[in-house]
Amino acid sequence: MGLLTIGAFARASRLSAKALRRYDELGLLRPARVDSYTGYRYYDETQLERARLVAWLRRIGMPLARIQDVCDLHASDAAAAARDIRAYWAQVEADTSARRDLAVFLVDQLSGKDTDTMSQLTAPLGFRYAARSDRGLVRETNQDAAYAGSRLIAVADGYGGRGAPASTAAIDALKPLQAEESGSTRVGDLLNALEDAVLRADTAVSGFAESGTTLTAMVWTGSQLALVHVGDTRAYVLRDGDFFQITHDHTVVQSMIDEGELSPEEAATHPQRALLLRALDGGGAAVRPDLRLHEARAGDRYLLCSDGLFTAVPDADVRRALATVADPEEAVTELVALAHRAGGPDNIACVVADVVRL
Ligand code: MG
Q: Of 154, 164, 193, 339, whose CA is between 20 and 30 Å from 230?
């Protein structure tokens, strides 16, 4: 089996010689032999497969550390490597869609299209709200948390031995946002404040070893709702009679649905439906919450809830309760009652918030 010079190997693998030297330094792709006198690198032909995989993964934008993991997996289990690439790509698409929403918001702001939202400031909108967290009928403890205030609504579903303090701490970390000056339309300020709040929440959770939490929250900015979301708690809106989910679950089954491998009906009963791709677990900068700005309208009704509601109660029943029970307090009571009637297998957190003219 012949050894190739770095130039020949670079041509065959479509990687530059400079990249090959870097991958050697990183341990991602070591040459078969380095001449001790000249320092020239030589590669074995059998290394081409790994090199080509590296080249293709670079082309889809995968970071080098992740490429190393995929290549190592590939050496022993190609199917596992394929799964990891799929999970990475689902993540990229979710991030891209969150960035697209932000880009649209920035364009609107900078091109002055926000006059409608500005005029709403003079006729301000606000929340009428209720929150409930309930143990359910099976679990011994309640690890869900729910909160509603005049500028912040949030639910969190904790897991692990200290899931209950984790979910509470995550929501508490968002509360300072409520006190901040309302009506700021400076995009940068707002997004920085949100990102800081999520990092605060993550830091708070990092104190609870082996535990973590999901978090779905909306912050009223004076003209819009800023949505922060990590994990599989959800936000829905009932608008003009239409009821739809406005968050995207960070779960393995959701990524399988996105890939067309699973139907939503199959996902509902999938044994691994609770397996999270993202959560607040003290990961620091690795936590990538979805941050979005959502244009609220008077008459909108928002529902934030944990999986204890949406996996136990069919969408149609949730929708009917929201459409027919006018008072938010009575609406959350009805939603918890529906989950209990379905056996109450998990903790239930829900917030109902109506957007009203003040
Ligand atoms: Mg749950």
A: 339
